[in-house]
Amino acid sequence: MGRLSVEEARSLVIASIAGPVEFESLDLGDSLGRTLAKDLAAPHDLPPFATAAMDGYAATPAAAGSELRVVGESRAGSPHDSTPGPGEAIAISTGALAPPGVGVAPVEIVEAFDGVIALSADLALGDHVRAAGEDMPGGAKALAAGAVLGPGELAVASTCGAARLDCVRKPTVSIVVTGDELVAPGEPLGPGQIHESNGIALTALCEQAGARVVGTARSGDTLEATRDSLASALETADLVIASGGVSVGRHDHVRPALEALGVEELFAGVALKPGGPTWCGRQGDGRLVFGLPGNPASAFVTFALFVAPAIRSMLGRSPIPEAWPAALAESVRQRPREQAIRVSLEPRPDGPPLAVSTGAQGSHRTASLSGAWGLAFIPPGEGNIPAGSVVAVEPL
Prior knowledge:
Blueprint: H1 6-15, E1 23-27, E2 40-41, E3 51-52, E4 56-59, E5 67-74, E6 88-92, E7 103-106, E8 110-113, E9 116-119, E10 129-130, E11 141-143, H2 151-159, E12 164-168, E13 172-178, E14 182-183, E15 194-195, H3 198-209, E16 212-219, H4 223-236, E17 239-243, H5 254-260, E18 264-268, E19 272-273, E20 279-282, E21 288-292, H6 296-314, E22 324-328, E23 332-333, E24 338-346, E25 354-357, E26 374-378, E27 384-385, E28 390-395
Parallel strand pairs: 5-6, 13-16, 13-17, 14-15, 17-21, 19-24, 22-25
Antiparallel strand pairs: 1-12, 2-11, 3-10, 4-6, 4-7, 5-9, 8-9, 18-20, 20-21, 22-28, 23-27, 24-25, 24-26, 26-28
Helix pairs in contact: 1-6, 3-6, 4-5
């Protein structure tokens, strides 16, 4: 099989996901950032009764100039026990129960003296009264399954009286980083060694996408070491990522190790720069395995394009974020493969935002990852795409 396009490879990844993993019940306070597994319905009308929208006085309809005797008060949590009669009013606070058949005269249109108020404007039925169910009627869908639970969603759930929510369990991920040359950050470098960055970056990317990393291992560049590390990873996680060793060089052992472990290849190679050697396979039980290039920018880009959609699918979310149109700040030379260029976006007063390259785009260059808002897609071809051309930019 030749190298697939980005779209073809992503379609294979998404089609291989059976659906969200199982759900778990969480306290409301522990649900931030999680994915709702089941619809949440309003248990009753919200608000459950008519309430005052402003501080003032509740009374039956009356004309401007009317004088009304104040006969009681309705406060939030302490309602008045009856509807005021003709010529009567009750003081009322915002959010307090409004008796049937009244409007609320805001304090701004009322003059009060000696237990009596005078209206400076007409008061009609329902003025400044929020009806029961105005926010949501009882039984209405308050939150839909698949919703990502941010502060607003948690406020809705709390309003519905939900103390716990059924949330999709976070998919678990195990990461294996290969390379004899890699040294942990903080350790001194020997000849030919570099500090390892993919383990840190991929862990952060997984957690940002909504997964939970349960293991990170470094493997030497031998078939036996690679196979042992991957075998352990496959036993512990829903999804496995191998970084490096995925090409076909003498010291690239990820693909033969996975074949020996019974992982079936879905695709090997994508017509993409950076990230051409990207590999994806599936174990018999449906567990997905990704082999990402070892160069840091390639690993970052291919995670965003292939692994993150898999994680979002496992969470029951839309797998691919909506792309934005943006104008290239400078011309870009086309390549035989599609390019995913790291860019920031600068707003403009008219037209789409400007996509500005974050620096040199070599697959080994980590500096261009800092400040990158998204990936600008440059179609394959020959020649240059001029500055000002509008391209699709997918947010990171």
